[in-house]
Each structure stands twice: as C-alpha cells, then as structure tokens.
C-alpha cells in the first residue's frame, strides 16, 4: 500500500528541503571509516596507478560513473565519493514506503576493482550485526546477481559494457528492500501458509530496521552525520505513529500510510512476540529521536503514563499477594468418651 496523496506531497517537500541542505551526490575528503579504506590495491596499469592516472581507462570509467550518478540519482538514494580515493564510494538508500524498511536508512560501502568494469565493484552493507533481509548478511555481504555474488540468468549478471553502479543501487532498493523480502530466500514460493510466514518475517524485519535506526543515531557514518539526524528528526513522528498502529493492529506492518486511514476495516492480527519486542525498543526510539530535536511531546507523555500505570499495577499485584497470605491454626483432634475422634479446623485468621 502506497502513501496517501497528502502524505506523499509532504514527504516530497521534506526531500526537496533536505536535498538543498545535503546534495544527493557529493565529493568529500574524509574516508577514514570506509570499510575498504585499508584494503590493499593491486592498481598498476601500464606502469602507473590506474586510480590516479587520468589517462587510465579505469580512471575514465569511474569518472563516467560519477557523472551518471550525479545526474540520475533518484530522490531516495544519496552518494558520497572521495576526492583522494576515487576507487571508494559510499551510498545511502532510504527504505521505500509500503515495505517493512520504510523510513530506515541503509548504508553501503563500494570499492572499484583495478580492472573495472571487467568485474563489478565490491560492496559491503553496514548491518550492525542484524540480518534484516535474505540478501543482506550480518558480515556485510550483499547477495545479488548483478554483483555476481548470486547465480542468475546471463542477462541478470554483471555486463562490463552495460552495467553501472546506479543499476546496482536501484536494484538493491527495488529488488532487495521490497514489500515481501521473505520471498527473496531461495526455495520459497507462493504456497499455502507462506503468506503467514511472510507476515511474520516482515514483523521481525521492521523491528530490526528500528534497531538499525537507533544504532545509526548513536554512530552515524562519516559525511552523513547531519543527514541522519535531520532525517530522523523529520520522520520521527511518522515512525512512532506507525509503531503504535502496528502494535494495535490498525495497519499491516510496513503499510502505515500516515494519512489517517487504516489497512483494514477489522483488526489485524500481530504476534505477541512482535508486541513484546516492539514495546521493549519503543522507549529507546523515543529517546534517540528526542535527541535529534524532534518534537515528541505526546509520545514522551505516553511513555510516562504507561510507566506510571505499570508501576501502579506492580504495586497492586504485590499488595494482592500479601493479602492472600493466610495463617492457619493446627488441626485439633478431640477424643470422645466412646473413643471416637473428632476433628475441628479452626477458622482462618485474617
């Protein structure tokens, strides 16, 4: 389910302002936290450095890639290249609406090989140790036919004469970060019972995406610090409202529209595990978003009331248990003249 017209217009307006503040494509200097920064390069080309020699074919091809990216990046993909290391590139993809990745930020570090474009670029996903997609591994591996990291038809694999970095990024956004990532797993198909498994997978993905948001705010990638803070400051209200809608069964996970409508006229079933996990991370999200300067008065108040209610409930339970504790007198055995025993149980002392 897509965004409503009003919500979509609002989102586009936010993106336009954000783009003015942070260009989609930019050349930067600091590459100190790039995953491939210290990777040894065998980059000699006819006795020179193929990445620094402007006459080398590799250098010319990478410059062409820069031009393509600068002119054709979609609104939801941002790229940073490095003035002293043209072999490195960092990309950030905003999670698409209508998916369990919505409003999340996903970072990828790329490195061009010295024989580029004969072979595709290496790519590393900043996972924070979380597996939120069958194609994105916790060790940073990105499984994609276009990168030759997964088997595929010949026309799906890297083609040195046609394939580009832009195609790679758009493929990750559209084919990997999709509405039903469960079906990205090899061997899955649209069989009986698979839809329920897909919905359960989406619940877990959304929780992991929320965790990723928190980790990014704690340690944003270099050259994206301001963007990360600005993005979550702008989207905090929408994200937290979506969390509540999912926990309450008012919207299918990943499909909160933000325009006041709900996904179904009846309540949507969500697992208890999702509710428990979401409630445990929700306060962390409110705190992290508040630190960006987001206006979250209602959400902070909601947490305060819930905390007071939980504390009151715990006190009531303890008091009830204490009240139920009873003291009994021992069983009294009496002997009659006829030798018949009588038993009398004394009343419980209050």
TrEMBL record:
Region listing for Disordered, in residue ranges: 1-20
Polar residues composition bias: residue spans: 1-13
Alphabetical UniProt keywords: Transferase, Ubl conjugation pathway
Domain UBC core, residue spans: 57-214
One GO molecular-function entry: ubiquitin conjugating enzyme activity
Domain of life, per lineage: Eukaryota
Cited Pfam families: UQ_con (PF00179)
Protein name per UniProt: UBC core domain-containing protein
């Amino acid at each position: 389910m897509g965004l409503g017209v009003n919500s979509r217009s609002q989102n586009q307006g936010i993106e336009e302002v954000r783009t003015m503040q942070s260009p989609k494509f930019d050349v930067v200097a600091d590459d100190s936290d790039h995953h491939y920064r210290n990777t040894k390069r065998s980059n000699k080309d006819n006795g020179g450095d193929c990445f620094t020699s402007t006459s080398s074919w590799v250098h010319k091809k990478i410059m062409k890639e820069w031009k393509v990216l600068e002119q054709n990046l979609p609104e939801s993909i941002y790229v940073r290249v490095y003035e002293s290391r043209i072999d490195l590139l960092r990309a950030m993809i905003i999670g698409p609406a209508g998916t369990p990745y919505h409003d999340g930020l996903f970072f990828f570090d790329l490195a061009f090989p010295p024989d580029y474009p004969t072979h595709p670029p290496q790519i590393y996903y900043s996972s924070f140790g979380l597996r939120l997609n069958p194609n994105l591994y916790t060790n940073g591996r990105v499984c994609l036919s276009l990168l030759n990291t997964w088997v595929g038809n010949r026309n799906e694999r890297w083609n040195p004469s046609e394939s580009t970095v832009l195609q790679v990024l758009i493929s990750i956004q559209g084919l990997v970060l999709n509405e039903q990532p469960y079906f990205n797993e090899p061997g899955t198909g649209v069989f009986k019972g698979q839809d329920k498994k897909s919905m359960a997978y989406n619940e877990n993905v959304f929780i992991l995406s929320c965790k990723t948001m928190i980790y990014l705010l704690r340690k944003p990638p270099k050259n994206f610090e301001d963007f990360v803070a600005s993005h979550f400051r702008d989207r905090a209200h929408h994200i937290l409202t979506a969390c509540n809608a999912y926990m309450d069964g008012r919207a299918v996970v990943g499909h909160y529209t933000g325009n006041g409508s709900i996904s179904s006229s009846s309540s949507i079933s969500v697992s208890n595990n999702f509710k428990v996990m979401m409630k445990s991370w929700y306060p962390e999200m409110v705190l992290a978003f508040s630190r960006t300067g987001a206006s979250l008065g209602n959400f902070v108040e909601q947490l305060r009331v819930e905390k007071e209610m939980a504390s009151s409930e715990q006190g009531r339970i303890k008091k009830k248990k204490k009240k139920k504790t009873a003291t009994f007198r021992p069983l009294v055995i009496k002997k009659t003249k006829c030798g018949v025993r009588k038993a009398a149980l004394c009343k419980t002392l209050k």
